[in-house]
């Protein structure tokens, strides 16, 4: 190899290697300090694009989990009100039975009736309960059998996946508590219970509600079977509530598992392998120091030309 002064090829080569090793060293430092394998798009453009979509899906899934938890709270509060309603109806049935005791005077029955009417107003107050400003119960007062209480017009949709409206949906019922306590019948026949029916639109009938804030029913106007039916209707509403709660719980579990798997997939793309990258750091650190030392040696090589000129 010829000896030249203007171009020091060894120094140029050593400088190139030093720059390259320093670049790799900085990349390892960035990865270890951030904990990420991809610190800029040039590291892995395709992997970064996949990671962004996975991260977005994870974020939406967490939001959906929060929505499901709120829906569960809604259902739990609703069931608590239904339990309270069942206890009130049970107490009303007890009062009705006590009022039929032959040992009770008209004044005693009047005392029972006072509580009986107060309980009707309390039942009506329960039907107006809200959860964070959202009505727990449908406002319909149409009398009907228990099978009609869960109509789609009285439901709200809970989206249980990261796909929103395009994904799975659980319908949460706004229980028709007021309708469950309303019977289609003529008040003149209430006590005798002749031709008793809960079917909507009975001939000559009018809606009579156990839940009433003003036009309350007297205790002697109702037979015990009314309370039995009302309790059966509330039981149906609670069963519907329980089924929906179970679906929401399973949906939450599934969404949590899916989120965990998505996070694992994203980790395999984005997170740095600390053991492997630590090895790279040590390697490039040594190479950078060696390149710097060799560059210094290469820069000294042209001094040999001075010996020839002397």
How would you sum up this structure, described in words?
The chain is mainly α and 310 residues long. Helix content is 60%, strand content 7%. The chain has 7 helices and 6 strands. The protein has helices at 9-34, 45-99, 106-126, 177-180, 224-270, 274-300, 304-309; strands spanning 130-131, 134-135, 155-159, 169-173, 182-185, 206-209. The strands form 3 sheets. It has a two-stranded antiparallel ribbon. Strand 1 (130-131) and strand 2 (134-135) form a beta hairpin. Helix 2 (45-99) runs antiparallel to helix 3 (106-126) and helix 2 runs antiparallel to helix 5. The two termini are 21 Å apart. Residues 143-152 and 191-204 have low confidence and may be disordered.
Any key phrases for this structure?
310 residues, mainly alpha, two-stranded antiparallel sheet, two-stranded antiparallel ribbon, 7 helices, 6 strands
Major pleated sheet: 2 strands, antiparallel
Determine the structural class based on helices, strands and strand pairing: mainly alpha
Individual helix count: 7
Helix content: 55-70%
Task: Round the Cα radius of gyration to an integer and report it.
Answer: 39 Å
Amino-to-carboxy terminus distance:
21 Å
> Uncertain regions: pLDDT < 50 for 5+ in a row?
143-152, 191-204
How much of the sequence lies in strands comes to 5-15%
- Report mean pLDDT, rounded to a whole number: 84
Strand order of the largest sheet: 1-2
Query: How many β-strand runs?
Result: 6
Looking at the structure, what is the overall shape? rod-shaped
How do the SSEs run, as a string of H and E?
HHHEEEEHEEHHH
């Amino acid at each position: 190899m010829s000896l030249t002064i203007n171009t020091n090829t060894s120094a140029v080569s050593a400088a190139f290697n030093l720059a390259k090793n320093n670049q790799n060293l900085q990349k390892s430092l960035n990865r270890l300090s951030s904990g990420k394998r991809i610190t800029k798009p040039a590291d892995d453009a395709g992997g970064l694009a996949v990671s962004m979509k996975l991260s977005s899906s994870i974020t939406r899934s967490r939001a959906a989990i929060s929505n499901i938890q709120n829906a569960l709270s809604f259902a739990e509060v609703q069931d608590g009100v239904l339990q309270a309603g069942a206890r009130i109806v049970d107490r009303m049935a007890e009062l009705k039975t006590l009022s039929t005791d032959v040992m009770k005077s008209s004044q005693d029955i009047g005392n029972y009736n006072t509580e009986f009417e107060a309980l009707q107003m309390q039942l009506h107050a329960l039907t107006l309960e809200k959860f964070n400003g959202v009505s727990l119960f449908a406002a319909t007062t149409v009398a009907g059998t228990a099978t009609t209480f869960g109509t789609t017009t009285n439901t709200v949709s809970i989206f249980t996946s990261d796909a929103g409206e395009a994904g799975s949906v659980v319908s949460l019922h706004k229980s028709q508590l007021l309708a469950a306590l309303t019977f289609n019948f003529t008040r003149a026949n209430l006590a005798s219970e002749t031709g008793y029916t809960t079917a909507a639109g009975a001939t000559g009938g009018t809606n009579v509600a156990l839940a009433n804030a003003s036009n309350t029913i007297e205790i002697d106007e109702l037979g015990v079977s009314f309370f039995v039916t009302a309790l059966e209707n509330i039981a149906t509403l609670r069963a519907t509530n329980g089924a929906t709660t179970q679906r929401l719980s399973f949906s939450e579990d599934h969404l949590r598992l899916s989120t965990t798997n998505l996070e694992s997939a994203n980790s395999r793309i984005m997170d740095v392998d600390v053991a492997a990258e630590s090895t790279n750091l040590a390697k490039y650190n040594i190479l950078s120091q060696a390149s710097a030392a060799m560059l210094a040696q290469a820069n000294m090589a042209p001094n040999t030309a001075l010996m020839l000129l002397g």
